[in-house]
Design goal:
The chain is α+β, with helices and mostly antiparallel strands. The chain contains twelve helices and 16 strands. The chain has two domains: 89 residues; 184 residues, no CATH class. Strands 6-5-11-14-1-2-3-10-7-8 form a ten-stranded antiparallel sheet.
Length: 295
Amino acid sequence: FFSMICNAWSFVDLPQVILEIIISRFDFRDLVRLGTCCKYLQHLCLDDDDRFYQMVKKRWNVQSIRNRAIEADGFRGGHVYRNIYINWHQRNRMPTSPYSGQRFVRIASNMSKIGHVGQWCTLKSAADCRLHNHLLTLRTVVQNTTTHPVWVQLHTTELELQSGMRLLPASSKVVYLRDSGELDGRTAARSAEFDRETPLHNLYSFLVVESSFRFPPEEDKAEIIFEPEALERCHSLSIKCSAASIKDAMIEEDGCLPPSIVPICHFKGAEKLWDYFERLPGNAFVFNQEKQRQF
């Protein structure tokens, strides 16, 4: 595709304003590919640091980038925001919301190359780090990293334990959505259908879903009391996504379900997970968010 448009003299001869509008719809991978076609397109795609400033803000949902962040990443001079974009991408940084971002511990993650869907998992910790009513509450961030719409099948949320047991959530709801569709920002009351299947229409749209899993007693094992004990038994969490709405696909394809994308968030090892908890006198724990915090 990119070699075709570069061979077409009419594309590069378009007014720069039009080219800017076209290029603004590309993600980073497309910009790199287009920028290899010629020096002129390389300049438009990869040398404009203002473009990368806007891309950083859009992808990670940040309102501004402080000088402190730039100094911490060691970037000065030209192409500051391009380097920040590359650095944050390599770190697999999650987008920012009231329920996600660098202020929250990332206990599991996956940046899928198949289907271009990113997922991260954080913990909604109780004040005393105990499992009340045997429930562990996790928040999963799902981001669309392609230019095509993605439907998140929230009813397929599943937690797999190290033992191979699979748990379905006792409760699950969308707590945040950043998209140009039905809702934007902190979500309010929705229909049951919305919580079952939520669309992410645009590039870098994302949502946060909060799910509570009930841990049943296991044979020959002590009762799980604290959150770190539950987390070390977790292996992975998955939420299916698809390239089409289930309802629309069944109408158009004569009852056939759309093909699914299944990104899987793999949990960190037990030693790393325990590092986020501090033991207090009296056999109690506290969850330390600061150990994960980055700028």
